[in-house]
Write a structure and sequence with these properties.
Elements (H helix, E strand, L loop, with lengths): L2 E8 L9 E7 L4 E5 L6 H9 L6 E6 L2 E2 L3 H6 E4 L11 H11 L4 H14 L15 H13 L5 E5 L7 H15 L4 E6 L11 E6 L2 E7 H5 L11 H10 L14
Parallel strand pairs: 3-8, 3-9, 6-7, 7-8
Antiparallel strand pairs: 1-2, 1-4, 4-5, 9-10
Helix pairs in contact: 3-4, 3-5, 4-5
Length: 255
């Protein structure tokens, strides 16, 4: 059951330019990478999809559930860019606390925290204080926190930012495994090489507009045949993310 944004308009203030004017988007099932440069509106789209922000105009739904309802937020989990280690709490305690905030009772949250940490391959660090975890491990705690209440949609905002290549590879494998286990994943990034060829779908957002959404193979097909395998995603992105040309202007005395 995909998340749908219907003719959404959003701005962060009356005197600020609109991030979106009439954004309509249906997040595909499976694992989708949301590409776009900084400032394109990726984080705002995810906040709308998570119910963290509400559009000034338009609707965000998951099936018949509206984004402002409790039932919607129980189905949809959002992981922001920054994951903060809660001082004094272990990994399991931090994840359980998130479950409690989501409305779970303490016993269920404690049990679910262990299950969520197991899903992100961090059960062996469950009793370690989060302040002692590596950056990559703390990101996995963030994913576990997002999954603790059995969400079926996972929204990730730039989750691999700041990771070294090894951490990024581990995180990629984790997300791919989750996406094949009945969890719909929508992950934003400005790094074209970040999972673009491993995702099932790609969406490109440029200046608040969807300039491409489709399967990964259709996305890569935009690259010319002579593009190297290592650079196909980058070339395809350059072509589909480019803003449309301005209409030709005609002036008197010219043809």
């Amino acid at each position: 059951m995909p998340i749908q944004l219907q003719e959404c308009a959003f701005t962060y203030g009356r005197r600020k330019p609109a991030v979106f004017s009439e954004l309509t988007y249906t997040a595909p099932d499976g694992f989708t990478v949301l590409l776009g440069p900084n400032g394109a509106g990726k984080s705002t789209l995810l906040k709308l999809a998570a119910g963290v922000s509400r559009p000034a105009v338009g609707h965000v739904r998951l099936g018949h559930l509206a984004s402002h309802t409790r039932e919607y937020r129980q189905r949809v989990a959002w992981m922001p860019q920054t994951i903060t280690a809660m001082t004094g709490l272990t990994a399991r305690e931090q994840v359980a606390y998130t479950g409690w905030l989501k409305g779970m009772n303490r016993t269920d949250a404690w049990t679910a925290a262990h299950r969520a940490l197991t899903r992100v391959e961090l059960a062996d660090r469950a009793d370690v204080k989060t302040k002692h975890l590596s950056g990559g491990q703390l990101r996995r705690v963030g994913v576990a926190s997002a999954l603790v209440h059995d969400a079926t949609v996972l929204l990730l905002d730039e989750p691999t930012a700041g990771m070294d290549p090894t951490q990024r590879r581990v995180f990629r494998d984790l997300i791919l495994n989750l996406a094949t286990a009945d969890v719909q994943v929508l992950m934003s990034t400005h790094d074209v090489g970040d999972l673009a060829e491993e995702a099932t779908h790609v969406t490109v957002l440029t200046d608040g507009r969807i300039t491409f959404t489709g399967t990964t193979s259709d996305f890569l097909a935009h690259a010319p045949a002579d593009a190297s395998q290592a650079h196909r995603a980058e070339v395809a992105y350059t072509l589909v993310a480019a803003p449309p040309p301005l209409p030709a202007q005609h002036t008197l005395g010219t043809e």
